[in-house]
Specification:
The structure is a single chain. This protein is an alpha+beta fold. Strands 1, 5, 14, 15, 16, 17, 18, 19, 20 and 21 form a ten-stranded antiparallel β-sheet that branches. Strands 4, 6, 8, 9, 10, 11 and 12 form a seven-stranded antiparallel β-sheet that branches. A hairpin with a 2-residue loop joins strand 14 and strand 15. It is globular, with a radius of gyration of 22 Å.
């Protein structure tokens, strides 16, 4: 029989977070500082805690619950609120994560070391669903012709087009070659960044993203890498799917993110954190194409599922994110976590009930048939 246990956690105050971003979304008391992410799961860096005393549950956080129960959550759920761009990044496949973790363990690199790439042996496929209109992101390499057209437009508007022509020549050689050149550290790259930034400053309406990124990360080659990626803006309820190898960055907005229970991130720019060019290139998928939207699958009248396994690149991914907007019956495939971002709901299992008004988090501690009554927006993370 599944229990329904209210959870809580402390928002993480990364510098790119929106001031009071989590509080604003959930109706919580504001902290007055950046609230970038609220982690809901058992990840040891920030495991969720029971809202009541630990004596009432027998465990003090979900990491301890995993140890006590012998079960493991196949996901990490996050509420993310970005006021400025996150780093350009990608995540490894399961085999790459296992190999990289073992290699760095054997090399004796501390888990807390700045140069550590693999914090655990797990993959980190992820999806994100926009909570509000206007969630903005970069997702996957776009076709080369689109990149070349942008460089041509920059060169035409620039007072110093020669460095941009060097970038164009590198980009024209192919997605991989162009990317490798941008992260090479060559002085020609720095010159191209300067030329592109100056052009965008003179023509901010035409090259708004370059101007914005340059304001956040002046001189960073990631400013140009970003121009080789698909730039998308999501409406509320729209979603992106970020499989292993997909290069991406969230630029601004609030979303609910569901991912594998991992902290393995390979970065490629727009960050003061460690950038390992060689390791990143090993995991990247350089295939150009459109951004990888994940269409929700209707489950019932008031329930849709954002299900990675519904697309070929999500084969084998064992979690999904349900969005419940009204009365519904939901069957979870694992212990589940429900997060209410709007409205008022009641969750019921055989023998247990829990209220879930806006801002509530409820842990369903075993696979269960859950009856949901109410209206609004209730996200439920579960295994499949």
């Amino acid at each position: 029989m599944a229990a329904l246990i209210p959870l809580t956690n402390t928002p993480r105050d990364y510098a790119w977070g929106t001031i009071d971003g989590v509080a604003r979304t959930l109706g919580w008391a504001p902290t007055g500082g950046p609230e970038a992410e609220l982690w809901l799961g058992a990840h040891p860096l920030s495991p969720s805690e029971p809202a009541a005393s630990a004596e009432a549950t027998g465990w003090h956080d979900l990491a301890a619950w995993e140890q006590r129960s012998g079960a493991a959550l196949p996901y990490l759920l996050k509420l993310l609120s970005a006021a400025s761009p996150l780093s350009l990044q990608a995540h490894p496949t399961p085999s790459q994560a296992a190999e990289g973790f073992a290699r760095e363990e054997a090399a004796g690199i501390p888990l807390t070391a700045r140069e550590r790439n693999y914090k655990d042996p797990n993959a980190k496929p992820e999806l994100i669903v926009a909570v509000d209109d206007g969630f903005e992101a970069l997702c996957g390499f776009r076709p080369i012709d689109d990149t070349l057209a942008l460089i041509d437009a920059l060169a035409q508007a620039s007072d110093d087009p020669a460095p941009l022509q060097v970038w164009r020549d590198a980009a024209a050689a192919g997605v991989r070659d162009g990317f490798v050149w941008l992260l090479s550290g060559a002085p020609e790259v720095d010159a191209a960044v300067v030329a592109a930034t100056a052009t965008a400053a003179a023509h901010p309406d035409d090259f708004e993203l370059i101007a914005r990124l340059a304001g956040e990360y002046p001189g960073d080659p990631g400013i140009l890498v970003a121009q080789t990626l698909n730039h998308v803006t999501l409406a509320a309820g729209e979603s992106l799917w970020l499989p292993a190898g997909n290069i991406h960055a969230y630029l601004r907005g609030t979303g609910v993110e569901l991912m594998g229970p991992s902290d393995n991130v390979l970065r490629g720019g727009l960050t003061p954190k460690h950038v390992d060019r060689d390791e990143l290139q090993k995991v990247l998928d350089f295939t150009p194409g459109p951004a990888s939207h994940l269409k929700p699958v209707a489950v019932s009248e008031n329930v849709v599922s954002y299900r990675p396994a519904s697309v070929p690149s999500g084969a084998g991914v064992d979690f999904e994110l349900l969005l419940v907007t009204g009365d519904a019956a939901v069957t979870t495939g694992s212990a589940a976590i429900a997060l209410a971002v709007e409205g008022t709901f009641t969750l019921s299992t055989d023998g247990a009930d829990a209220a879930a008004a806006r801002g509530a988090i409820v842990f369903v501690d075993a696979p269960a048939a859950v009856r949901v009554t109410g209206a609004g927006r209730l996200f439920i993370a579960t295994g499949v």
